Amino acid sequence: MVAQILGTYGGKVEDITIGDVLATWQVSTRNGGHTIRRAYRWLRDAGQFPADAPVTLRHIIVRSGQVGPAELVDRYQLRCRGVRDLIVDYLTERQLSLDYSSLRQLSTHLAGYFWADLERHNPGIDSLNLPKEVAEGWKERIGTKIVRRGQAGGTTSQGREPRAYAPVIKTSVRAFYLDLAQWALDEPHRWGSWAVPCPIRETECSVKRLERQQKVKSDQRTRERLPVLPALVRTASRRLKEARTRLDALSNASLGSSFTALGEDFTTPKSTRRSDGRPATAYDAEGRRRDLRAEEKIAFWGWATIEILRHTGLRIEELRELSHHSIIRYNLPTTGEVVPLLQIAPSKTDQERLILVSPELADVLSTVVSRVRGADGSVPSVHSYDIHEKVWNAPMPLLCQWEIEGERYQISENTIRKALNEALAASGLTDAEGAPLKFQPHDFRRILITDVILNGMPPHIAQVIAGHGNINTTMGYNSVYPSDAIEAHRAFIARRRSVRPPEEYRAVTPEEWREFLGHFERRKLSLGSCGRAYGADCIHEHACVRCPVLIVDFPEVPRLIEIRDNLRERIAEAEREGWFGDVEGLSVSLAAAEEKIAQLDARRAQKDSPVFLGIPSFKEAAGRISAVASPTHT
Questions:
Q1: Which residues contact residue 384 at a Cβ distance below 8 angstroms, ignoring those fewer than 6 apart?
Q2: Do 174 and 109 contact (CB within 8 A), yes or no?
Q3: pLDDT one-digit tens code per residue, 242-292
Q4: What is the SS3 assignment for 250?
Q5: Under 8 Å CB-to-CB from 449, ≥6 apart: which residues?
Q6: What is the C-alpha R_g of the chain?
Q7: What pLDDT, in 10s, does the model give residues 56-87?
Q8: Which is nearest to 365 in space by CA: 397, 327, 339?
Q9: b/e map of 318-340 (b: 16 or more CB within 10 Å)?
Q10: pLDDT of 13 higher than 80
Q11: Distances from the Cα of 554 to the Cαs of 311, 348, 527, 537, 596, in angstroms?
């Protein structure tokens, strides 16, 4: 490719510029686009380009980066120059207090939905002081949107439906008017001429109805998906095993040969461009070309996504930001016990949080780490692009990464959603109307919060785990929690804050910190460890066999089997003697014991399967070790 650039533009290698590479890329995307990317990386590593040149060609050709308020407003080609400049100045003033995503949204509301719409329907308008009929016409239009639907015969129909987020747009416009009026008092020479009555009343901006509608939809989604989550988990695990089996069979086959995997017949191609000489694709019995390596990748990340999200309740952007450094361990100073933690970087909020890593989550994380390790045993650092803020982040050893054509990339949101959708399609799950069931990554977050509250976790502990700034947000995620309990808890919090002295809201004392550490020291039980969150009461009154947060260790399986057998004998005795109250209570304990044994058998089967990629110890998997943990993280 370097020779092609020289042949096209002349000169020597030292004369090649970034513009030459971009021009060559434009004509070679369809044939050899990956080659030009490798050539760019080779030239940059050789010092041919300036030191501040983008790391890869992808930094230039794929992502546009941030633009200023003027460029955001000019997307809508406003004809009135005065109002255009006013909106640009207003956004410039607000820019310091907003993130880029919010700034873009605000520019869309003011320049797109508001003023551009007014100019289309009122040619020549040049004042914010809107006549009543103009304002009412705009509010009527913004309250609905045009929807086009396909019809039989290839035709389409067009209609209008209510716009769900119309109150949000009205709120932005109302804030625009009120800010101008307030700023006119401080700087009349700059803003005074634009201070006019606001055409939108406060009551028109109410989002209570929208919030109620969203709550009803979210509750229905959670109730419909919570019972079928185990089936989806089993399907994702099965698909990974099958994809791995097909890939192993392909790796053992030679070029131009045939092989059979899981009852399917495949034929390998006669040649390959791979450097290792091994085929990546094969033709099935119907002659379709299938990329078995890509299928295994998608199956793996579908499984990993489902497992991590259901155990942590992460947002999808937080999942993509997980790095090797996120896995930390904390050594209890008194016992030396290692407490594995997962550090979540802030996404929507500015507060980091720590999540206790369960054995199941540890299995998944260690498997992911083993997969993305480089040849030197470390997790490679890759650049990531923040699609909301439109900026490139510094290289980090991200867990959600893979290699494409010799380059390491962060896995995109679309790829994660594709992997999840393929697992759903394979599960055959349907909704109440018989249509294929759809999952969004955020559904796992709602399911986790609902499940932990149903199992007795106090709402304020669930709030910390979810990383919500307000407990009302956490309760909004919970789908079936009794309303009287919600109101009682809110009243308790309000009452406590009003009567307790302000001295209580202070730094943690050494005694309180020792009490916190003592919680982890008391986790060890005869059957394993207690996973109850700090500050949470034991909901089963120390009947640990029944408790869902009991983490049973493999060495304690014989003891658990002995307890199960004893429970069966006691149930039989109670039935003979007519102690039916005891029969009911013992049956609950027996069901819980059998469920835990089944879970341990499933974990052991996963470890012993050929798909299992190995579990390094936390000493190997942890990106860093925290000798002293901050109490605010817990």
A1: 320, 321, 392, 393, 396, 398, 410
A2: no
A3: 999 999 999 888 888 999 999 999 999 888 777 667 788 899 989 899 999
A4: helix
A5: 313, 462, 465, 466, 474, 477, 478
A6: 30
A7: 666 555 555 788 999 999 999 999 999 999 99
A8: 327
A9: bbbbbbbebbbbbeeeeeeeebb
A10: no
A11: 20, 39, 9, 26, 11
Residue whose structure tokens are 């909301």: 388
Asked if 615 and 363 touch (Cβ cutoff 8 Å), the reply is yes
Strands 624-626 and 327-331: parallel
Contacts 24+ apart (CB under 8 A), 628-633: 629/330, 629/341, 629/354, 631/508, 631/512, 631/513, 631/516, 633/341, 633/343, 633/352, 633/353, 633/354
Tell me the CB-side half-sphere exposure of residue 567, using CA atoms within 13 A: 20
Q: pTM of the full predicted structure?
A: 0.64
For 409, the token pair is: 């990339």
Q: How far is 365 from 368, CA to CA, in rounded Å?
A: 5
179: alpha, beta or left? (left if phi > 0; alpha if psi -120 to 50): alpha
Angle between helix 580-608 and helix 557-577 axes, rounded to 10 deg? 160
Determine the Cα–Cα distance for residues 218 and 318; give it in Å rounded to an integer: 21
What tokens does 109 get?
């509301």
d(CA 407, CA 33): 13
Domain boundaries, the chain: 2-61, 69-206, 229-323+379-427, 441-499, 510-626
